[in-house]
Design goal:
Length: 305
């Protein structure tokens, strides 16, 4: 480990070796970089425990299969590499990414079948979509004029790097005194935003878009909680109108859990405070983390802080 890097800034796994995240690099000609020909997944560590690690790795495999990629690592080996990144970083709360790229084509070839797929991973300090104040008071959102890439073009259920629509949506949000956009589908429905799914609450019932979205792990967790709590919840098309008229709106993401939205296009929801259903689900999300629900303890060994 180089002296000039603090392991707690992040550790990566590249070309079979663990290196400081700041020194990790990929070849410029990897199609993952020049063609967005890649898939990835992000799992988090909270209080020294991975949350739903096996489920995230399973989803990563589903994405690879859909893109006709494969790696010479078993699920257990991937889990071990991710764990080793976290262990070496010493981080108790971490954002842990696994990436599979198409790799480097043979000289003069455009045939993706000839590429050897590559695996990259890293652990870095936990990333939040919302800062402390936004988590307490809610986020400001805009209904973006940008359409989310159509699922007929790129399967949004496969976690991908096609983020230009989401990124332009972020600019639109900042231009309009907000921090997050929700993208639309061009047919009157909402889809998702940069790094999150969206839920609306109306008369105590939940709904979340069922199409043209990435099926987030936090979304799945909330759907499970709703089942447990007896809250009706349907993945189904959600119109822009429904969003405007909702009693409560919240986001779900690995990067922060259940996050309230209290302003949309300048309209204040619920007196500008997170609503009761949002709060209940958010509290349950973190309570489950503290109980160790669906989580895996990391053995930090001798370097435990
Ligand atoms: C486009 C998109 N939608 C939704 C999500 C939320 O998924 P998860 O809850 O698994 O973090 C993400 C996560 O990065 C995402 O990139």
């Amino acid at each position: 480990m180089s002296e000039k890097h603090n392991p707690a800034d992040g550790i990566a796994f590249v070309n079979g070796a663990y290196v400081p995240l700041a020194e990790a690099s990929i070849p410029l000609v990897d199609r993952g970089f020049v063609r967005s020909d890649a898939t990835y997944d992000v799992v988090h560590v909270w209080n020294g425990r991975f949350f739903r690690l096996d489920d995230y790795i399973e989803r990563f495999h589903d994405s690879m299969r859909a893109l006709r990629m494969s790696l010479p690592f078993s699920r257990e080996q991937i889990a071990e590499i991710l764990t080793e990144c976290v262990r070496r970083s010493g981080l108790r709360d971490a954002y842990v990414q696994m990436t599979c790229t198409r790799g480097i084509p043979a000289r003069g070839s455009r045939d993706p079948r000839q590429c050897e797929n590559r695996f990259y991973a890293f652990a870095q300090p936990f990333v939040w979509i919302a800062n402390e104040e936004q988590r307490r008071d809610g986020l400001k959102m805009v209904i973006s004029s940008v359409q989310r890439i159509a699922p007929e073009a790129v399967d949004t259920r496969v976690k991908n790097f096609h983020w230009l629509d989401l990124t332009m949506g972020i600019f639109e949000a900042y231009d309009n005194d907000a921090t997050v956009p929700v993208l639309v589908d061009g047919k009157g429905h909402i889809t998702e935003g940069p790094g999150f799914n969206i839920f609306v609450v109306q008369r105590g019932e939940l709904a979340t878009p069922d199409r043209g979205v990435f099926e987030g792990m936090t979304r799945r967790t909330v759907l499970e909680f709703a089942g447990e709590l007896g809250i009706a919840c349907a993945p189904r098309p959600v119109t822009i109108e429904e969003l405007r008229e909702a009693d409560e709106v919240f986001l779900t993401s690995t990067a922060g859990g259940v996050l309230p939205v209290t302003v949309i296009d300048g309209r204040i929801y619920g007196n500008g405070k997170p609503g009761p259903v949002t709060q209940r689900l958010s509290e349950l999300y973190w309570a489950r983390h503290n109980e160790g629900w669906k989580s895996k303890v990391i053995d930090y060994g001798a370097q435990a802080a």
